[in-house]
């Protein structure tokens, strides 16, 4: 099967932005109770790469400015290891898409339990695309173990032809005309982006972008709210007439400010900048195979703007509402399409090593709602194994010392912090993660809600 697709601008950006010192790859790790069946695990893997064309493709250049995904029938992307510990990870080596497929899977399994580690290249998949691969893998494995006794919903069906519309705005002509009056706001945002300097969490000058990363595995710290705190966090968002994403961004801004104050940090830059991926899938894309179908937005705030946390929350909610109303996030794709034809193309945009974002914050939502698997005590069950825990590791770029992936599992809000261990020590990273968790818990306890909203909260609890 020889399926070919031309790279979209965002795929091309991540392809060029992949450097030895800053691999444009990210990881997902599942901790399982139970021992995987090796033969069935390999069959599940083969099924997944057949269902998702980009999982078994590499990149070839047709012309100097034209890069294409080239589907290959034989790929070696599955690794098996009998040894398993709680810290079993995949190595931090990059993926060269000129020769390798953008997916690698490691299985660490023995009688004590199992770990599955997915490594994916960001040029091919975004976070939700990677989770499609992961949940399909678990679902196929579950069906192989149980055979005809599987029950439940059938496997989701995908249409490979929909890959031709990935990373394209799904707007009618009438919709585009309706959105025209608000597009000037994107021009203002672009002007601000290039005229403001992001403040780094820590100096990242120690890593040469052209030298391979030295650490053998990702440096990850995970923190979680309790189910009760998670419910309260969501209620606080509702009673403040905002969203959980608004609260997360506000609390991360406040955490960064407190971090600078407690560490007496030397501020190098003008604004704290949080880069946020935005999922652009709609009902039109419900049969879209795993791919990268996200855009990016940036939230910038100066340190004085972070002092009043309640005012900050209102400002973030208003900004996010404007972005959604006018669909301004889609202009990220349009900007990349325009940049593709400028001198030097998109490869020129990736040559900088300066800090473009203080941190990254991505929210994958409730993972259980997307998995077609049975549950036991709120945990996903796949055949003879049970998913006890999950971690997601976002990629880091030059100047960005740490990034955060947020998701819900077992009714708990979970935060995976990936940090650059050559500029942040383990103690510093744990202190930052604890400070973020503390800020989230303060939000859960205090809420910053009016008396009217407290009455509404009591009524909803009753």
CATH class: Alpha Beta
Discrete helix count: 12
Major sheet description:
7 strands, mixed
Cα-atom radius of gyration: 22 Å
Quaternary state, please?
single chain
The CATH homologous superfamily corresponds to Nonribosomal peptide synthetase, condensation domain
Please tally the β strands and state the result.
16
- What is the chain-wise order of helices and strands? EHEHEEEEEHHHEHHEEHHHEEEEEEHH
Distance between the termini: 58 Å
Low-confidence segments, ≥5 residues, pLDDT <50?
448-462
Based on Cα principal axes, name the global outline.
Answer: globular
Percentage of residues assigned to helices: 25-40%
CATH architecture: 2-Layer Sandwich
Instruction: Output the structural class.
Output: alpha+beta
Domains (count):
1
Name the features.
single chain; disordered C terminus; 16 strands; Chloramphenicol Acetyltransferase; alpha+beta; 462 residues
């Amino acid at each position: 099967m020889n399926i070919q697709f031309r790279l979209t601008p965002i795929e091309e950006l991540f392809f060029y932005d992949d450097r030895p010192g800053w691999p444009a790859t990210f990881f997902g790790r599942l901790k399982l109770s139970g021992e995987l069946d090796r033969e069935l695990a390999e069959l599940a893997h083969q099924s997944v790469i057949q269902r998702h064309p980009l999982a078994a493709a590499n990149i070839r250049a047709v012309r100097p400015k034209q890069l294409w995904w080239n589907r290959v029938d034989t790929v070696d992307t599955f690794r098996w290891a009998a040894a398993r510990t709680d810290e079993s990870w995949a190595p931090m080596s990059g993926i060269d898409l000129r020769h390798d497929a953008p997916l690698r899977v490691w299985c660490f399994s023995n009688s004590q339990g199992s770990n599955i580690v997915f490594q994916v290249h960001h040029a091919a998949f975004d976070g939700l695309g990677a989770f499609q691969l992961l949940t399909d893998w678990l679902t196929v494995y579950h069906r192989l173990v149980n055979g005809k006794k599987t029950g439940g919903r059938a496997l989701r069906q995908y249409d490979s032809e929909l890959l031709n519309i990935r990373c394209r705005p799904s707007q009618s002509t009438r919709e585009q005309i309706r959105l025209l009056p608000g597009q000037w706001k994107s021009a203002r945002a672009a002007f601000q982006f290039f005229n403001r300097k992001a403040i780094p969490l820590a100096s990242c000058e120690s890593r040469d972008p052209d030298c391979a990363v030295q650490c053998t595995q990702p440096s990850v710290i995970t923190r979680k709210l309790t189910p009760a705190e998670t419910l309260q966090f969501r209620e606080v968002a509702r009673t403040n007439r905002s969203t959980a994403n608004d609260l997360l961004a506000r609390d991360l801004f406040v955490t960064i400010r407190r971090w600078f104050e407690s560490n007496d940090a030397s501020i190098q830059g003008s604004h704290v900048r949080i880069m946020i991926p935005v999922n652009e899938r709609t009902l039109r894309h419900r049969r879209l195979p795993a791919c990268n179908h996200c855009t990016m937005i940036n939230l910038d705030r100066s340190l004085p703007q972070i002092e009043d946390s309640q005012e900050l929350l209102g400002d973030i909610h208003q900004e996010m509402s404007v972005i959604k109303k006018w669909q301004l996030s889609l202009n990220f794709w349009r900007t990349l399409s325009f940049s593709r034809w400028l001198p030097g193309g998109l490869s020129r945009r990736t040559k900088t090593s300066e800090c473009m974002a203080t941190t990254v914050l991505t929210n994958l939502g409730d993972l259980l709602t997307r998995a077609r698997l049975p549950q036991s005590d709120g945990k996903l069950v796949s055949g003879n194994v049970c998913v006890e825990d999950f971690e997601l590791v976002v990629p880091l770029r030059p100047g960005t010392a740490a990034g955060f992936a947020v998701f819900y599992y077992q009714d708990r809000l979970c935060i995976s912090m990936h940090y650059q261990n050559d500029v942040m020590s383990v103690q510093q990273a744990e202190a930052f993660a604890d400070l973020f968790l503390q800020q989230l818990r303060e939000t859960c306890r205090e809420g910053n809600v009016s008396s009217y909203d407290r009455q509404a909260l009591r009524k909803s609890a009753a």
